[in-house]
Design a protein that fits this description.
Order of helices and strands: EEEHEEHEHEHHEEHEHEHEHEEEEEEH
Strand order of the largest sheet: 8-10-9-11-12-17-16-15-13-14-18
Shape: globular
Number of helices: 10
Helix content: 10-25%
Radius of gyration: 20 Å
Strand content: 25-35%
Number of strands: 18
Length: 351
C-alpha cells in the first residue's frame, strides 16, 4: 500500500505503508542508533514523535518481551529505508509489522531516508504527517494541526506503584521513565516506588525515601518546572536527587543554568561525553534537545560532563548538595553501559 510522509514545508516522501493504516501527525525526529529500534519505539520520551531511522534496515530482530521501555508505545509513527517483514520462526519474537498493527502505529518504508535526514538537518524541528495522499488538502490539514504540549502529563503514571527490592528506598518521579532505569535500580537492590510527576512533597515524604530520582521524559522543562519546584524547594539538599534527561533539564532550570537549544535533537546511542576531572570518555545514549551553556551559572560542581560534539554541559554532580544530573541515560538501553556507574554515585550519596 502506497503512503506518503508529508512535511509542513510542502514536501513529501513516498513509500510503502505497513502497520496501522491510520493518518498520524507528529514531530519528526532522527533516530541515529544502529540497533535498539524496539527500545526507541517504546521509550516514552519519544511521545508524539514520528521517528526517522537512519539504520539501513530495522525489524530483522523482531520484538521480544524483555526490551520494552513501556508497554504502550506513544510514538506517532516510524519511517525507515527498509523493514524486515519476516523473522526467524520463534515463539519468543514477534515481527515488527504485527507489533505496529497491534499498537496502532503507522509506518512507511522504502523511503529515501538519506534525503529526509538532510532536510531535517537543515530545518530542525518540523511537523509531519503519515497520509494516503499528498494533495493540497493533506498539506492544509497538517498546517492547521497544533501539536500537544506537556507530554509528561500524558505519559506519567496516574497512580503510584512499587518496584520492590530489599535495599535502599528511592522515590522516582515519573516524567516518562524507561523500564530499563527500573531494571538498573533493581540490579542494585533498590526498593523503588514510582510516583506521578504531579506528586506533592507530602506524597514523597510519606514514603520515607533515602533518595529521589526525577526521570527522563518528553517535552520541555518549562512545562513541568512549576509542578516540580515545590518538591525541589522541600527536598533540595535534604535527600540525594538524581535527574535524568528531562529531569536534568528541570534541575538545570531550577538552579538558573542557561539552557541552549541544540541545532538538531540528540536521539541515539552515539554521543560521547567527557568527565572533566578524569578525562574519561563515555559513549552515551541521549534523547534530548537542550544542554547547558558552560559557565552560565554561579554554582560549584564537583564534576561536570561535556558533550564532545557541542562542548555544552551534559551532566554535573555536587556531593555537598547531594545532587547529580545527566542529559544522557546512564543505563544505555540501547547502547553501552559506560555511564551506568552514575547510579552507583547516586547510591553513594545516601551514605
Amino acid at each position: 500500500m502506497k503512503r506518503y510522509l508529508i512535511l509542513e514545508d510542502g514536501s513529501s516522501f513516498p513509500g510503502e505503508g505497513i502497520g496501522a493504516s491510520i493518518i498520524s501527525t507528529g514531530e519528526l525526529a532522527i533516530q541515529t542508533a544502529n540497533f535498539g529500534y524496539q527500545e526507541a519505539l517504546t521509550d516514552p520520551t519519544n511521545a508524539g514523535k514520528i521517528l526517522v531511522f537512519t539504520s539501513p534496515m530495522i525489524g530483522n530482530n523482531g520484538i521480544n518481551a524483555i526490551d520494552y521501555e513501556s508497554i504502550d508505545p506513544v510514538v506517532k509513527g516510524i519511517i525507515a529505508n527498509d523493514i524486515a517483514l519476516n523473522i526467524s520462526d520463534s515463539e519468543n519474537f514477534e515481527d515488527l509489522s504485527s507489533f505496529l498493527k497491534e499498537k496502532n502505529i503507522p509506518a512507511i518504508f522504502k523511503v529515501d531516508t538519506r534525503a529526509l535526514v538532510h532536510r531535517l538537518m537543515e530545518e530542525g524541528t518540523i511537523k509531519a504527517s503519515i497520509m494516503d495522499t499528498n494533495d493540497e488538502h493533506a498539506f492544509d490539514q497538517i498546517k492547521a494541526l497544533v501539536l500537544p504540549k506537556n507530554k509528561s502529563a500524558t505519559v506519567s503514571t496516574k497512580n503510584a506503584y512499587a518496584s520492590p527490592n530489599v535495599g535502599r528506598t528511592v522515590a522516582v518521579l515519573d516524567l516518562g521513565l524507561k523500564h530499563s532505569m527500573l531494571r538498573a535500580l533493581s540490579l542494585r537492590k533498590v526498593n523503588t516506588t514510582v510516583l506521578p510527576y504531579s506528586a506533592s512533597p507530602i506524597d514523597i515524604e510519606n514514603l520515607r525515601p533515602e533518595g529521589i530520582i526525577i526521570s527522563n521524559g518528553p517535552g520541555k522543562p518549562e512545562e513541568v518546572i512549576n509542578q516540580l519546584t515545590p518538591v525541589l524547594d522541600h527536598f533540595y539538599g535534604k535527600y540525594p536527587i538524581l535527574g535524568i534527561g528531562l529531569g536534568f533539564l528541570t534541575l538545570s532550570d531550577y538552579l538558573g543554568f542557561e539552557l541552549v537549544q541544540l541545532p538538531q535533537e540528540f536521539d541515539g546511542i552515539n554521543y560521547p561525553v567527557i568527565e572533566q576531572n578524569s578525562n574519561a570518555i563515555w559513549q552515551t545514549a541521549m534523547n534530548i534537545d537542550q544542554l547547558v551553556l558552560p559557565d552560565s551559572f554561579f554554582f560549584y560542581c564537583y564534576g561536570e560532563y561535556f558533550d564532545l560534539h557541542s562542548e555544552l554541559m551534559a551532566g554535573f554532580w555536587n556531593s555537598k548538595d547531594k545532587l547529580i544530573a545527566t542529559a544522557f541515560n546512564p543505563e544505555g538501553a540501547p547502547g553501552t553501559n559506560d555511564a551506568d556507574e552514575i547510579f552507583d554515585y547516586f547510591l553513594q550519596m545516601m551514605g
